[in-house]
From TrEMBL:
Pfam families: Epimerase. Gene3D superfamilies: NAD(P)-binding Rossmann-like Domain. The lineage of its organism: Bacteria, Bacillati, Bacillota, Bacilli, Bacillales. This is Nucleoside-diphosphate-sugar epimerase. It comes from Paenibacillus selenitireducens. Residues 6-233 form the NAD-dependent epimerase/dehydratase domain. Transmembrane segments: none annotated. It comes from the Bacteria. InterPro entries: Epimerase_deHydtase, NAD(P)-bd_dom_sf.
């Protein structure tokens, strides 16, 4: 039986390499689209400028892999990964237009499922000039999105673009609002800095392991009938060794709307919806990693 083909953009990046490996291990034929080759070439890579619709459409064409095969889906993770790495307009233009082009090409070629990387930054807390308190905790997908930076704004626009493509074509698009993505080599440094509870306040001490992200991407591609969905993706626990109630009392004393009991080290970025809709569970936890 022919392997199902999946397109991954940004597979040469931090999370992307784990997504490539995961889909290869799960028996998919994977094609990576990126501006550079990955450090571990586990699959074919095509060097593509995702800001050029023609290049995107050519690279994901059913003929791209040497035999005619329509990809079962696209996992779009290529982006400028945070605010202020580039001038504001460069970040916004790159992240918005690359996402639009991926969705437009998918629509033109009859690809019915796309996963895109949104961000917790869309809530506006991470890169605000002055710290703003969440309206309530844990933050779920209904929390207002109030970014003032071009990165967070690009993610809000991308979610709206995904919804527009669903309305026009019926395409299934799942947008993951990702917490701080960690890879295995990330954990030691964070644990060594546990005493500085202030340092991860702006991400509300949330995190998500890249391997759990990869599993969520597979589940989203293999799930049918979702429409345009937006899902937080975070570990069940926080990236601090302190009880969450202590973190909130110390660092978020003005947040009065606490919607669930803050038991143990519960995350302040709710993953309840992702669990319910995808059947996803986070397997990797910061206190358990070497």
């Amino acid at each position: 039986m022919s392997q199902p083909r999946i397109i991954v953009t940004g597979g040469s990046g931090k999370a992307g390499k784990w997504i490539l490996k995961h889909f290869v291990d799960q028996g998919y034929e994977v094609i990576n689209l990126d501006i550079k080759a990955p450090s571990d070439p586990v699959c074919r890579t095509i060097i593509v400028d995702l800001n050029d619709l023609g290049q995107v459409q050519n690279a994901i064409s059913p003929f791209s892999g040497g035999e005619r095969k329509v990809p079962v889906g696209i996992v779009h993770f290529a982006a400028i990964p945070e605010a202020y790495l580039f001038p504001n307009e460069v970040c916004f233009r790159n992240n918005v237009m690359s996402t639009y082009n991926v969705l437009e090409a998918a629509a033109n070629l009859g690809i019915s499922k796309v996963v895109i990387a949104s961000s917790e930054s869309s809530y506006g807390i991470c890169f605000a000039t002055e710290f703003i308190n969440p309206h309530y905790v844990p933050i779920d997908e209904d929390h207002p999105q109030l970014p003032e930076d071009s990165y967070g704004l690009s993610k809000v626009v991308n979610e709206a673009t995904a919804a527009a493509f669903h309305r026009r074509t019926g395409m299934q698009v799942v947008s993951f609002r990702l917490g701080n993505i960690l890879v295995p080599e990330s954990y030691a440094a964070i644990r060594a800095n546990f005493d500085d509870t202030e340092s991860r306040k702006r991400i509300l001490w949330s995190y998500i392991d890249a391997r759990d992200v990869a599993m969520a991407c597979q589940l989203a591609i293999e799930k049918d009938g979702l429409g345009a969905e937006v899902l937080n993706l975070a570990a069940d626990d926080s990236s601090s060794d302190r009880p969450t109630s202590e973190l909130v009392a110390r660092h978020l004393p003005d947040v009065e709307d606490i919607r669930v009991p803050l038991e143990g080290r519960i995350s302040l970025l709710s993953n309840v919806r992702a669990k319910r809709i995808l059947g996803w569970e986070a397997k990797y936890h910061i206190l358990e990693q070497e």
